[in-house]
Amino acid sequence: MVSTLDDYDVKILQLLQENGRLTNQELSDIIGLSASQCSRRRISLENQQLILGYHARISPQALKQDMIAMIEIKLLNHEQEKTLNFLNFINNEPSIIDAFKTTGDADYLVKSLVSDLDTLNALINRIFTTKLISHIKTSVVLERVKEHGNVISQ
């Protein structure tokens, strides 16, 4: 259950979104609450699942995986077992970093991170070999214009 957020909670969320490494003391110095109050509020926000985790953003180049492809996927049908098999495939495919169920022509939009066209081709072949797909449309990302935008703006 999510309780009502006050201005301090929103400010904590904004600050942690910008820098998840802020300590409770640093939060305290910025927003004017004690470090212990900031700690309690942070724990409460985590328990309410309003803070989903703390992550390091790693450069794709560091992983030698600097090709992004957006893949629109239409399933053959939407039988529960086949859909679950498809979702299981998506969840177990390391090249797929995000997947979204969508409206429109495609059933899913998948974001993949691969090293090169050969690796992308192999991923697309693995998707097709599930025998659950009726159509795939792939777009290779040429430039990252905006990525990882803030959920809460100032």
Question: Mind explaining what this structure looks like?
Answer:
The protein is α+β, with helices and mostly antiparallel strands and 154 residues long. The chain has two domains: 41 residues, Winged helix-like DNA-binding domain superfamily/Winged helix DNA-binding domain (Arc Repressor Mutant, subunit A), CATH 1.10.10.10; 81 residues, Alpha-Beta Plaits. Helices cover 38% and strands 19% of the residues. The chain has a four-stranded antiparallel beta sheet with strand order 2-3-1-4, with helices on one face. Strand 2 and strand 3 form a beta hairpin. Helix 2 packs across helix 3. The mean pLDDT is 91. One of its GO terms (biological process) is response to amino acid. Keywords: DNA-binding, Transcription, Transcription regulation. GO terms for molecular function: sequence-specific DNA binding.
What distinguishing features does this structure have?
alpha+beta, 4 strands, single chain, transcription regulation, 38% helix, 4-stranded antiparallel beta sheet, 5 helices, 2 domains, Arc Repressor Mutant, subunit A, 154 residues, elongated, Alpha-Beta Plaits
CATH homologous group name of the largest domain: Lrp/AsnC effector binding domain/regulation of amino acid metabolism (RAM) domain
Helix run count: 5
CATH class of the largest domain: Alpha Beta
Distance between the termini: 25 Å
Strand content: 15-25%
Tally of DSSP β-strands: 4
CATH topology of the largest domain: Alpha-Beta Plaits
CATH architecture of the largest domain, by name, is 2-Layer Sandwich
Overall tally of structural domains: 2
Unreliable stretches (pLDDT < 50, length at least 5) are none
Bin the helical content.
25-40%
Major β-sheet, in short?
A: 4 strands, antiparallel
Strand order of the largest sheet: 2-3-1-4
Summed over residues and divided by their number, the pLDDT gives a mean of 91
Could you spell the SSE succession in H and E letters? HHHEHEEHE
Class of secondary structure makeup: alpha+beta
Tell me the Rg in angstroms: 20 Å
Report the oligomer: single chain
Shape: elongated
